[in-house]
Backbone:
């Protein structure tokens, strides 16, 4: 039995579109989330644990809500899911929000931290260190007053990460919900299929 941990944000949690003018969102049914679609495709020899949180950033700078600082809570998620054969990091979109004012180099370092840190972890019942796959921030449509993401910075970030990471997946054509940042149901299917195809390439090392 192989075990995958997905550590991500609201698109791993399964957020639907926010209602206009509110902070209300609903969660997609389990069977419609990309993590569970992926689990179905992988079959009984695999288990998938999805650790998604709305608003989570890759770094540790979310001082207004410490729970959103991805690095500060990663060890807990890793220990809870252990032992794992593969960690999928699906973070970085929230870091691109202009309100954080994050520079390219800082976001790159924050995402690269997960690879270095995971391989330094001692214990958690690992028989071997887990493989790593990074789902780079996907496409989004910036919306001032809601998710004012920097689309140009996303392109620069992904280009830089592709030169630094061994295993990465970039998707720039996901179907989005009406709020322009959360993935539509059809987008969850697309993402699951793309991750599945990437895992087929990585199978020999898992």
Residues:
């Amino acid at each position: 039995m192989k075990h995958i941990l997905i550590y991500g944000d609201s698109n791993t949690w399964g957020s639907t579109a926010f209602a206009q003018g509110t902070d209300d969102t609903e969660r997609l049914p389990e069977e419609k989330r990309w993590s569970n679609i992926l689990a179905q495709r992988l079959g009984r020899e695999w288990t998938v644990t999805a650790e998604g949180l709305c608003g989570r950033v890759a770094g540790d700078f979310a001082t207004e809500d410490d729970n959103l600082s991805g690095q500060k809570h990663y060890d807990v998620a890793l220990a809870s899911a252990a032992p794992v054969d593969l960690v999928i990091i699906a973070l970085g979109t929230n870091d691109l929000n202009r309100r954080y004012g994050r520079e390219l180099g800082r976001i790159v370092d924050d995402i690269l931290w997960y690879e270095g840190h995971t391989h330094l972890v001692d214990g958690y019942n690992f028989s071997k260190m887990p493989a790593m796959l990074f789902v780079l921030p996907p496409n989004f449509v910036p919306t001032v007053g809601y998710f004012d993401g920097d689309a140009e910075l996303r392109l620069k970030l992904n280009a830089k990460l592709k030169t630094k990471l061994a295993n990465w997946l970039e998707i720039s054509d996901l179907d989005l919900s009406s709020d322009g940042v959360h993935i539509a149901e059809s987008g969850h299917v697309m993402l699951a299929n793309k991750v599945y195809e990437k895992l087929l390439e990585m199978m020999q090392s898992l």
Observations:
- The CA atoms of residues 27 and 149 lie 22 Å apart.
- The radius of gyration is 16 Å.
